[in-house]
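Reopening this ticket.

The earlier resolution said the output was attached, but the attachment link was broken on my side. Pasting everything inline this time so it's all in one place.
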Amino acid sequence: MLSRADVDSPSISRSKSTPLSLGQKILSKFRPSTQHLRLPIERFITRKRRSMIARRAPTIVTLRTGRYAFYEKPKKPCDDIALLPTIQSAAIRGGFGGEKVMVEVMPEDLRTKVHEYRAPSLVVLLLDSSGSMVGNLPQATEAILALHEDAYKHRDRVGLVTFKGNDAYVLRHPTTNLKLIEGDVARIAMSGHTPLAAGLMKAWEVVVQETRRNKDVMPMIVLITDGKANVSLRHRGRFLRSTRDAKHHAVQASQLLARHNIPVVVINPDHQVSSTFFPVPGGELAMEIARITKGVYYGFRSGQMVRIPYHSQASFSNPIDMAGLDQFQTDAAS
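Inline output:
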């Protein structure tokens, strides 16, 4: 169960200085690749964007900002008249005869403009830079490159959060300047334990800060991890004891994201659903995070990709005690 003390811990509420450069580098610079993972993430993001816009349609179509997309009969008094469609409607209704060249516009002829507003997208790249990811450097690099290209194409705002050792760190708050993201990723090295729950909470914190600036932003977290969580929020620094709680805290953090409608796209470069060392196999935990948040899971193993969409029924059988999470949400909202 998450308590307020867990939430106020340094790994969630603020970032400390950390030896992020210790370990094996992810990449020295961004470069074109000839062997992309071919992640269909763009389709998922587009589908999520459309569904979120549909839910917000009553507020979006009444705005006078954005692109003039089409026209309609006014539902209430409005001065944003679509002139040409209005005249056309009047002409069709009245017709022309004899020497009559003027068109009489009646109230029923009025047509108003409808504007399309593309709500800004926010992608928080949540990168597992723990030691267990060292063997997955090529796959992790390819995933980052694919995401970089997609974000550049759509001019999305991108933030960068990484987690390793006992903490999670915000390396870059959301920006459209992807050159800054490139530089930040290039200085990350992989080493240490896997505080997955702290990473999810830190990404949530970044999303909350961004939505306070723009309530229309459509957030999404892209998590690159093997799912082998071994550091809980409560027992950081005590590896063996922490491992028992690490999975439950990661699931509880995912429940929090779900309540805020923040989907998580999980990319696991080392897909596996059975392990003799970890009490909770990394692949199963990673899939559970995607399922809870109604995201999508991509797992890679021996050159093959496993895709599990958010409507998959795979789930842990153990119920999650949400009392601590409810209390946390109450405290966070105040």
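Reporter confirms the inline version is readable. The chain has two domains: 4-54+119-333, 61-116. Residues 33 and 142 are 8 Å apart (CA to CA).
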